[in-house]
């Protein structure tokens, strides 16, 4: 595959879903349905915006609900092709066992982040759903970032984030309790700081959710974006966009956000209408981008 700096309208955005044993089914099915249904042109079914690939340790992955999902590639193959993917999706489910055994998707999370550190010109996104954020925390990805998880796991999440910060001698994670999803290292210039309604800073007194990114610039207008590779390289994780979604159904909202920035907002609204879901917007950290 030819090197690319981002996905464009005539080149599908490559997404890798990393499944662990006993993953949560809705964590997988919600974002998968949203991304699968996203089109560059809602009137043309041939303009699918995303190419989705499922990776698991075995040919068949068993969800915690007892439903079996067939994988398309093994983790070994996923590592061999990792540079092909623009987005890595990490699911919740079976978190205690994954953390105890230090098994996948922990290693592939680290490997994906390292790719971005070494290639800041490329646009990549790491998305976790529900307790998948615990895996990001354990891997040290969330140091100095803001993040959320399932409300019932908030205390455990904070402990893992704190332990990881001490272990790696890194900054602590700003844990956000009242957001459907939290976005770090977004990649678009949204306007003047004083006029931007989407900025949330750690210094803000309250937790103010974003109204989302109305008028966001789509990939189809990518040549018009104002980006600085040098500035992005200086960002945490080489500018890797990190999105953590809250509990289960919040994955739908995070996936719709992903569609809105990687395709356009019209496409995201069309998908939301198709699946009859009311898109609840999340929190975007430091809405001004490079």
What do you see in this structure?
With 290 residues, this protein is an alpha/beta fold. Helices cover 31% and strands 15% of the residues. It contains nine helices and twelve strands. It has helices at 25-37, 75-80, 95-101, 106-118, 132-138, 154-168, 229-233, 250-262, 265-274, and strands at residues 13-18, 50-56, 60-62, 68-70, 73-74, 87-90, 125-128, 146-147, 174-175, 181-184, 241-245, 283-284. The strands form three sheets. Strands 5-2-1-6-7-11-10-12 form an eight-stranded mixed beta sheet, with helices on both faces. Strand 3 (60-62) and strand 4 form a beta hairpin. Helix 5 runs parallel beside helix 6 (154-168). It starts with 12 loop residues before the first strand and ends in a 6-residue tail after the last strand. Residues 1-9 and 188-227 have low confidence and may be disordered.
Quaternary: single chain
What's the order of the H and E elements? EHEEEEHEHHEHEHEEHEHHE
- What integer value in Å does the Rg equal? 17 Å
Separate helix tally: 9
SSE class? alpha/beta
Identify the overall geometry: globular
- Kindly report the spatial arrangement of strands forming the biggest sheet: 5-2-1-6-7-11-10-12
Tell how many strands the DSSP assignment holds: 12
Q: Provide the β-strand percentage band.
A: 15-25%
Largest sheet: 8 strands, mixed
Helical proportion, percent range: 25-40%
- State the distance separating the first and last CA atoms: 27 Å
Overall mean pLDDT score?
84
Uncertain stretches of 5 or more adjacent residues: 1-9, 188-227
